[in-house]
């Protein structure tokens, strides 16, 4: 038999064994409720179409259970739809719920397997996470990150002033600009920067490869062993291209740092500091590339919330003016924590449309029992962040509305009764490692937007002059963010425009 056919046959046999194992287990033990599914493929056809997070929330209601079980063609999967279930399992039993499933297409094939968010739970993850935490220690944040964030926010305000209609591009440039500046000391002038383009190419490949259903290999990892020439193995050729992109992104940026250090033009960055300390330059620097757009996605949602709710914009502007004076100066980090309305506005953005509505999947390392249900080892565990942040019992009956006031007392101070939407950043030991720095970025960007700009609905055509409601559609890939929408962004006064230009 030809070697390729032998591999395929072996792959098929192994796959059948794993499917049978799950069926035998599911017959014997009481798994959580969920749709019945089909032989072999299990519940593949029960995956909700469109916004999966909304579909799973509805499925939980239909089955009268916040914990759902689905069989993904042999891989067990639990969806946790309540804060109670994620706290019980992902937080209190984190010792066995903190692994990640394998992502063969993204990880091994496309070359993203170094990324902290994909690393299997264990010593390597602990070391990488500790290094990451060190890079973002309070003293580093104060000394290096905050000045760099402020510089990038001022560039963003200037871009917004010059070309307000391109605000979505500016958001990406802001988010990616902070990553490239803090990590490599690369400061972006525009989207044509070769380092940004190289990172964007690689990240685009990541998003495509991670899309549920985009590649069969994500559902059937065993296909990894199919040879490249085999019919249907196009994913392997695609992976080869992506792998080169990822390698290029990492190699080029590190080369830039080394060269600029050698000729004395380097600006302080995580890479330059690590290289100076003669540390391994592989273990820490690349993770943030996967995250080029997360802060952009969150800001994009907050701007959409402001466009749709002019009263929220007005209250935000009034609150910022009261704290720093109207058009006297731009906000800075000394103002952080002193304007509760801004904090409430950001919390509401994270809650209303969480940018990772199904979080990143966790994975069990041991079997377990929960509320009398059997939880298999090697099960994918999804925390349905959307369901948790849209629970009326926690956030009130108006959960679908964009309403920062839910986080405030009647005297305008932050309420202790409504919890911070921390599910937006994930759970337990795998909670977002950049949560603190992301919160700082969001704060200074939102406070600056409120201080400087009026934001309103676009006009519907040239003749009618009526205000056009922006699209409220969302793109749901790995990240969830608003589809392109139109709005008007204008400086609040000539004085503020001068402040921006001189920043
Ligand atoms: C609004 C902005 C952000 C949001 C909403 C967000 C959200 C998330 C979520 C939901 C996860 C998965 C957590 C889990 O598995 O339970 C995650 C993981 C992660 N995030 Fe963020 N993130 C944001 C910004 C950032 C930034 C700016 C950085 C880096 C500077 C970052 C670094 C990471 C890392 C390294 C992980 C992987 C952690 C691990 O697997 O141990 N994030 N993030």
From TrEMBL:
GO molecular function annotation: heme binding; iron ion binding; monooxygenase activity; oxidoreductase activity, acting on paired donors, with incorporation or reduction of molecular oxygen
Necessary cofactors: heme
UniProt keywords, alphabetically: Heme, Iron, Membrane, Metal-binding, Monooxygenase, Oxidoreductase, Transmembrane, Transmembrane helix
Pfam families for this protein: p450
InterPro entries for the chain: Cyt_P450, Cyt_P450_CS, Cyt_P450_E_grp-I, Cyt_P450_sf, Cytochrome_P450_fung
Transmembrane segments: 6-24
Pathway membership, UniProt: Secondary metabolite biosynthesis
PROSITE patterns per the UniProt record, alphabetical: CYTOCHROME_P450
UniProt: heme binding residues: 432
Keyword Lyase applies: no
Family the UniProt entry places it in: Belongs to the cytochrome P450 family.
Name used for this protein in its record: Cytochrome P450
Lineage: Eukaryota, Fungi, Dikarya, Basidiomycota, Agaricomycotina
């Amino acid at each position: 038999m030809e070697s390729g056919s032998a591999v395929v046959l072996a792959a098929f046999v192994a796959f059948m064994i794993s499917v049978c194992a799950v069926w035998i287990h599911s017959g014997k033990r009481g798994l959580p409720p969920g749709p019945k599914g089909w032989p072999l493929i299990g519940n593949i056809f029960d995956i909700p179409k469109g916004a999966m997070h909304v579909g799973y929330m509805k499925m939980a209601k239909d089955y009268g259970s916040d914990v759902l079980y689905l069989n993904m063609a042999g891989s067990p999967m639990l969806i946790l739809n309540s804060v109670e279930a994620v706290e019980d399992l992902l937080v209190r039993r984190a010792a066995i719920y903190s692994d990640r499933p394998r992502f063969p297409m993204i990880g091994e094939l496309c070359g993203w397997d170094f990324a902290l968010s994909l690393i299997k739970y264990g010593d390597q993850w602990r070391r990488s996470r500790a290094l990451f935490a060190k890079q973002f220690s309070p003293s580093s944040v104060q000394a290096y990150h905050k000045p760099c964030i402020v510089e990038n926010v001022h560039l963003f305000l200037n871009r917004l002033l010059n070309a307000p209609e391109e605000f979505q591009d500016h958001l990406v440039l802001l988010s990616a600009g902070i990553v490239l500046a803090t990590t490599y000391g690369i400061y972006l002038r525009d989207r044509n920067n070769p380092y940004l383009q190289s990172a964007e190419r690689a990240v685009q490949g990541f998003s495509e490869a991670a899309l549920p259903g985009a590649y069969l290999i994500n559902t059937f990892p065993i296909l990894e062993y199919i040879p490249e020439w085999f019919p249907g193995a196009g994913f392997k050729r695609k992976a080869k291209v992506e792998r080169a992109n990822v390698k290029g992104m990492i190699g080029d940026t590190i080369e830039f740092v080394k060269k600029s250090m050698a000729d004395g033009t380097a600006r302080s960055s995580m890479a330059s500091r690590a290289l100076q300390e003669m540390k391994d330059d592989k273990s820490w620097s690349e993770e943030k590339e996967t995250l080029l757009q997360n802060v952009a996605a969150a800001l994009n949602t907050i701007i959409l919330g402001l466009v749709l709710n002019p009263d929220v914009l007005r209250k935000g502007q009034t609150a910022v003016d009261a704290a720093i004076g109207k058009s006297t100066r731009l906000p800075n980090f000394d103002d952080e924590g002193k304007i509760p309305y801004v904090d409430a506005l950001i919390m509401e953005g994270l809650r209303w449309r969480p940018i990772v509505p199904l979080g990143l999947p966790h994975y069990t390392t041991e079997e377990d029992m929960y509320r009398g249900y059997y939880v298999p080892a090697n099960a994918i565990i999804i925390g349905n962040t959307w369901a948790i942040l849209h629970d009326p019992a926690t956030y009130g009956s108006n959960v679908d509305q964009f309403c920062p006031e839910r986080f405030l007392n009647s005297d305008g101070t932050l309420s202790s009764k409504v919890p911070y939407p921390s599910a937006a950043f994930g759970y337990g030991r795998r909670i977002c490692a950049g949560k603190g720095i992301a919160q700082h970025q969001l704060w200074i960007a939102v406070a600056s937007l409120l201080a400087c700009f009026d934001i309103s609905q676009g006009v519907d055509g040239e003749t009618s002059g009526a205000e056009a409601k922006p699209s409220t559609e969302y793109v749901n890939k790995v990240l969830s963010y608003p589809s392109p929408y139109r709005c008007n962004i204008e400086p609040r006064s000539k004085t503020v425009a001068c402040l921006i230009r001189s920043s």
